[in-house]
Write a structure and sequence with these properties.
It holds the Pfam family GDPD. By secondary structure, the chain is of the alpha/beta class. It has a single domain, classed as Alpha-Beta Barrel (TIM Barrel), CATH 3.20.20. The strands form three sheets. Strands 1, 2, 4, 5, 6, 7, 8, 9, 10, 11 and 15 form an eleven-stranded mixed beta sheet that branches. α7 crosses α8. The longest helix has 16 residues.
């Protein structure tokens, strides 16, 4: 039985394609990924991006990347969530999305009331950005978080707090232990080699190798200066020497490296590769071809597939119309949602949707009806 209220394909796709190169491989880099999840024979299933934090009723909304958003996804019967990670100044892994704290937390140089959409509209002055990596883990831990409700109003009472990854994994472990056998998984979005190493250690320390998956961009999360591409043993060696043995990974890499990770499974020290994910950016024809090839490679090699379809972050109403906004990791102000990019990415998803098993997508909860929405039109209808 498929999940509720997502039968229409989402109508936005938001991700970045990298064209940089690594020493470990020879081809252009495409956005592709792999994860050990079970496939579905009934079409794609949604993975809640940052958990389920939006709700049709503002009083039921959560802050993103929180324990509440994690539990809400499970309560509404989604198969899993993807959460974001950043590193504090002293090397503590924190569960948060932005490089700057101003938008999502009360540490914002504006007495806890900075609203990124109002800054973008010129209705509120901007403030100096505060980098997550400028403070220690103890300083950030349990920092109150904001909730953006309808019409981008701040509706948080500060009760939901930022968590360390160690704490989040403890909560996740409690969740699955009390889940009566129901499957639920967690995907961690990795941004740097330092986060990669620490996250892998924490997943192993909580004995969650079977339920938590590490997703990373090869060009930003792996220090490849010491690795030359020599086929499967390159990936096996990387897994062994970087603490990935036995872990489930989502390497976002090119076709050459997909085969590398696949064949490395023959080495006892390597990690698993069972699913591949692909997405495209506007105006990059070569990357689009590579992304399509990656999906087809997965099917030809007995792997499942995954894609990424984030919806808009917020909406603001003016003169009877709703303007859609995207939050920015490195800017205090929100940015207008890129409709052209959405159209290009949606076309890619539509063309390949019959091949796709899982989609990481922003999800609108409806606690009152015990359901959720991921299709774009239904989702945005509750933003303003």
């Amino acid at each position: 039985m498929g999940p509720k209220s997502h039968s229409q394909a989402p109508t936005t796709l938001y991700t970045t394609i990298s064209s940089s190169k690594m020493h470990c491989y020879k081809l252009a880099t495409y956005v592709i990924a792999a994860v050990a999840l079970s496939s579905t024979a009934f079409g794609w299933q949604p993975i809640a991006h940052r958990g389920v934090f939006h709700d049709v009723d503002d009083s039921q909304a959560n802050a993103e990347n929180t324990v509440g958003a994690l539990y809400r996804a499970n309560d509404l019967n989604l198969p899993g969530v993807e959460l974001d990670l950043r590193l504090s100044s002293d090397g503590v892994v924190l569960v948060t999305h932005d490089n700057l704290s101003n938008r999502a937390t009360t540490v914002d140089n504006y007495d806890g009331h900075l609203n990124s959409v109002r800054v973008a509209l010129g209705a509120q002055p901007s403030a100096a950005g505060i980098n997550i990596n400028s403070r220690t883990g103890d300083q950030w831990n349990h920092t109150p978080l904001k909730i953006y409700g309808r019409n981008s109003q701040l509706v948080s009472d500060g009760a939901q707090k930022m968590e360390t990854l160690d704490e989040m994994l403890r909560h996740f472990s409690d969740l699955i232990a009390g889940n009566d056998g129901k499957s639920f998984f967690l995907v961690l979005d990795i941004q740097s080699p330092q986060i990669f190493e620490r996250a892998a250690d924490l997943v192993r320390s909580h004995n969650l190798q079977g339920s938590v998956y590490l997703k990373f961009f090869a060009t930003s999360a792996i220090d490849s200066s010491s690795y030359r591409y020599e086929g499967a043993k390159t990936c096996a060696a990387y897994a062994h020497y970087n603490g990935l043995t036995g872990l489930k990974i989502i390497p976002q890499i090119n076709n050459d490296y997909l085969a590398c990770w696949r064949d490395a499974e023959n080495y006892i020290v390597s990690a698993d590769l069972t699913h591949v994910s692909a997405s495209v950016a506007a105006g990059d024809h070569i990357a689009a071809i590579g992304a399509e090839n990656a999906i087809k490679w997965a099917k030809a090699n007995g792997r499942g597939t995954m894609s990424i379809l984030p919806n808009t972050d917020a909406g603001s109403s003016s003169r009877g119309s709703c303007t859609y906004w995207s939050f920015q990791s490195n800017n205090v102000a929100a940015a207008t949602f890129d409709q052209n990019a959405r159209s290009v990415k949606q076309t890619f998803f539509n063309d390949l949707s019959r091949y796709i098993d899982y989609v990481v997508v922003d999800t609108m909860g409806n606690v009152g009806a015990n359901t959720y929405y991921t299709d774009f039109d239904r989702y945005v209808s509750y933003l303003c």
